[in-house]
Amino acid sequence: MDKEFLYKYFAGEASEEEEKQIMDWAEASADNYRLYLKERRWWDALLIHSDLGDKKTLIRSKRKVNLWMFSTVAASIALLFALSLWFTPEEQPEEKWQSIWVPPGQRAQVTLDDGTSVWLNSRSTLAFPASFTSEKRIVKLNGEGYFDVAKDAAHPFIVQTDRYNVEVLGTSFNVLAYADHESFETALLTGSVRISTAGKNMQPIVLNPDEQVSEVEGRLHIKPIDNPDHFRWTEGLICLDDERFEDLANKFSLYFDIKIIIQNPKLRDYRCTGKFRQSDGVDYALKVLQAEMKFSYTHDNELNEITIR
Question: How far apart are CA 159 and CA 166, in angstroms?
């Protein structure tokens, strides 16, 4: 592998196709991975010690971040990212902000300054202060996150999304709020949360343990949590319990960042039950379902599209 090609990738200047080539090469053998690791460490060291044109030095965050992938080589690469990940701060009146993004088909865990633990699902972004210094502990989520909030009654914890805010004192809960997806859901496992929004005239909604709220046609509806296994995505599992195939396809599309077209309308309402590991990928899941549902599909990598017939 040309080192200049690797440096282009490390600098964030590689195309999606070039990024895939590098990842495929790194995962092809242990020798490739060792070279990748060596060059990445050199690149990170250069970033840390270089003086950029604007006189700002890039400093890697020491915050605990775990990026989880499941093949042997990929797991090593994930550990590399955990050691070398750095964040771009956003200027705020009193706090400097950092952010973490999770690639498609992966998940990550981050421990915030106050001890709050956050799991992030595929294609999710979390922005958070390097240190909580305000009266409220505010983070911003685009995607899906599972929060185990450190108790601090004097400093409420607020998760801001593009549509609603979820406020807690100390609790564990799940929030699904992708900006490019219609769904908004919050499920409460322990404690209590309050859902509100600054952009709409609505009464805040308070959830009790084992309740969840979903947005349907612009309105929030509360119901009991029907299956806690749905939140086992923190373990890398996609769990299905009598779920419509069309809904499952939408979930695959969301988590793996791929367009899925179902051409056979008879397949849409087929009910699916079972578990898949997110690390196995969408093709593996579809091949398992094929044995029971009797469909065919094509996967166009160039268009990033799957057509099911």
Answer: 5
Q: Does residue 144 lie within any of the structural domains? A: yes
- Please tell me the pTM assigned to this model: 0.66
How does strand 305-308 pair with strand 297-300?
antiparallel
DSSP 228: G
List beta partners, residue 205. 195
C-alpha dihedral (8, 14, 18, 23), degrees to nearest 10:
70
- H/E stretch holding 286 reads helix 281-293
Element (H, E) at 227: none
Provide the domain count of the chain: 2
Report the alpha-carbon distance of residue 117 to residue 127 in Å, rounded: 14
Q: What is the pLDDT at residue 140?
A: 95
pLDDT at residue 59 greater than cutoff 50: no
Instruction: Provide DSSP, 146-162.
Output: EEEPPP-TTS-EEEE-S
Domain boundary among 211, 228, 245: 228
Task: Tell me whether strands 157-160 and 137-148 are parallel, antiparallel or unpaired.
Answer: parallel
pLDDT at residue 10, rounded to an integer: 67
3 state SS of 163? coil
Q: What is the pLDDT of residues 192-211, one digit of tens each?
A: 899 988 666 678 889 989 99
* CATH number of residue 253's parent domain: 3.55.50.30
